Amino acid sequence: MGNPFLESSQDLLVTDTRDVMDTAVADTVRKVQSLSEEQYKKFVEERLELCTKPVTETLPKNKLPLFSRLSVKTQSKQKEQLAALKSDCGQFSRLTRGGDLDQFFS
Fold first, then answer.
1. pLDDT tens, 80-101?
2. Among 41, 62, 66, 76, which one has the highest count of C-beta atoms within 10 angstroms of its own C-beta?
3. Contacts of 20 by beta carbon, 8 Å cutoff, 6+ apart
4. pTM score, whole prediction
5. Taking a C-beta distance cutoff of 8 angstroms, is the pair 55, 47 a contact?
6. Which DSSP letter does residue 106 get?
7. Domain of 35?
8. Superkingdom of this entry's organism (predicted)?
């Protein structure tokens, strides 16, 4: 890979690590300004002009794929699997505590 500033591609590059971002992240970066303008217009119309919603109502969260959110998803799956294994281990140990092991395994 040569100079990222001289290349002409649609990929989104991180210049210090030279990582190529996922296409979903690149699409988010391209459309974030138009999305924010639409949300601003909707906010002004609903809360200030038409007064259909109170100004104090919370705004919906944008769950757009970004740089920092990509690795978090894989960690949460691993944490879920670890929690499931721990609960299975705990359940098995509770079953074997009160019983006779020779009778349990025969």
1. 888 888 888 777 777 766 666 6
2. 66
3. 11, 12, 13, 14
4. 0.51
5. yes
6. -
7. 1-67
8. Eukaryota
Amino acid in the structure at residue 1: M
Give how many domains the chain has, as a whole number: 2
Burial 55-86 (b: 16+ CB within 10 A, else e): eeeeeeeeeebeeeeeeeeeeeeeeeeeeeee
- The region that residue 63 occupies, defined by phi over 0 for left and psi between -120 and 50 for alpha, beta otherwise, is beta
The torsion of the CA quartet 26, 31, 33, 34, rounded to 10 degrees, works out to: 180
Structure tokens, 83: 């929690």
State the amino acid at position 15 in one-letter form.
T
Regarding whether 20 and 5 lie in a shared domain, the answer is: yes
